[in-house]
Write a structure and sequence with these properties.
- By secondary structure, the chain is α+β, with helices and mostly antiparallel strands.
- It has 5 domains: 26 residues, no CATH class; 91 residues, no CATH class; 74 residues, GMP Synthetase, Chain A, domain 3 (2-Layer Sandwich), CATH 3.30.300; 63 residues, no CATH class; 59 residues, no CATH class.
- It has 10 helices and 12 strands.
- The strands form 3 sheets. Strands 2-1-4-3-5 form a 5-stranded antiparallel beta sheet.
- Helix 2 packs across helix 3.
Length: 389
């Protein structure tokens, strides 16, 4: 763990700031960008780009203009223009890469349309910022109580205070449309600040909360994944996975993002396969496809009247039969094209390191009653011999 708030504690246990890469130190942040142009100087006739990328809580990023020409570097805490008042954020990118990022995100390159950076945050700004950050958990609990009292079918997952404390943004998730006009009034009356409601998706909520996936690792969305591509059930069908929602769904309740990771490999392998609804015409009858093995290149066919007997064919043999059917010829039977796998070599492992057998505890122990009886008899004989002597 890179940052000081995530470092190891005095007792050897990891502290864990539980911010999932959104803490202010920027050491373990998944949204940190490497400035690969930092060691390169601009030509003399080109002025440096005055755009700056600033990051806030929950991975929120915005672009600002450095109107006063401040000397900024990645990781600097700055006070920026907000509506109303000002906000506090962390600089994540400066220089020409900001222009590239703005083009990528289709932002207006005219910096006059963007808000400006006021100054580098002083100690007073940082103390005020930390004060309102500490109030966020209690504000979230109170806002949930107000929402439950109004019987709103929504979940307030997080609260973000503006740097000067004049506004708070409430992030929520909901299945359907929610009328929260009365909720805004109650929240403004309870906290005395400007209220802004922002709906987030279930994937974004899972990325913010974090957790451990079924693979045993941290969730991809909370560690390195920044874009959420749509995942459909066809991804599972192409990979021959059973459509079990309990296994295919992640902690967000949606289909797992990792279903898309190997999809391209499966699609590339399926190009050599004939369609599964292809029927093979034989003199023995019509055969239908029952199962395929993508990476072994095998297909199993069965006759229409013999559904229990499957015949294993390679894709080359299936294409050969299809070509014969296109010519109007029927092959004799599937048995002539059955693929026979080579027998696997058995590895005879020897106990080279003197390890005990794994089944040594399976067999019951032999009784030692006879030995004990013999010992007792011998002891009694010795005693009697000593007495007679």
């Amino acid at each position: 763990m890179g940052c000081t708030s995530c470092a190891t504690g005095a007792d050897g246990q990891p502290k864990g700031c539980r911010n999932n890469g959104a803490c202010g130190s920027d050491g373990c942040n998944k949204l940190t960008v490497f400035d690969w142009l930092s060691n390169m100087s601009l030509p003399d006739n080109i002025a440096p780009f005055k755009g700056v990328e600033v990051r806030f809580k929950n991975g929120r990023k915005h672009f600002y203009r450095n109107a006063d020409g401040l000397t900024l570097a990645m990781g600097d805490v700055v006070a920026v223009e907000a509506s109303p008042g000002h906000d506090i954020g962390v600089v994540t990118l400066t220089g020409e890469l900001v222009r590239v990022q703005m083009k990528k995100k289709k932002e207006d390159l005219n910096l006059e349309t963007h808000p400006k950076i006021y100054r580098k945050a002083n100690q007073k700004d940082i103390d005020l910022w930390k004060k309102y950050r500490e109030k966020e958990p209690s504000t979230q609990r109170r806002s949930r109580e107000i929402a439950m009292a109004l019987n709103l079918k929504m979940k307030i997952s997080d609260v973000e205070y503006q740097g000067d404390g004049s506004k708070a943004t409430f992030y929520y998730t909901a299945e359907d449309r929610v009328d929260f006009r009365q909720l805004i009034k109650d929240l403004a009356r309870a906290f005395g600040i400007r209220i802004e409601m922002k709906q987030v998706g279930f994937r974004q909520e899972a990325a913010r909360l974090g957790g451990i996936g079924s693979c045993g690792r941290e969730l991809c969305c909370s560690t390195w994944l920044t874009d959420f591509r749509s995942v459909t059930t066809s991804s599972a069908r192409y990979q021959q996975l059973s459509l079990n929602p309990q296994k295919l769904a992640g902690q967000c309740g949606k289909l797992k993002c990792c279903l898309n990771y190997e999809l391209d490999t499966y699609l590339e392998a399926l190009k050599d396969f004939p369609k599964t609804d292809t029927k093979l015409q034989t003199q023995k009858g019509v055969a239908h496809c029952q199962k395929i093995d993508i990476f072994k290149g095998l297909m199993w066919f069965a006759y229409a009247n013999e559904g229990m007997n499957w015949y294993q064919l390679s894709t080359d043999k299936v294409h050969e039969i299809i070509q014969e059917n296109k010519k109007g010829n029927k092959v004799a039977s599937l048995e002539e094209f059955v693929f026979e796998e080579a027998p696997k070599e058995k590895n005879d492992f020897s106990d080279a390191v003197g390890q005990d057998s794994l089944t040594r505890f399976d067999s019951p122990k032999k009784s030692n009653r006879r030995r004990k009886k013999r010992r007792n008899k011998n002891k009694q004989r010795n005693r009697n011999s000593k007495k007679n002597a």
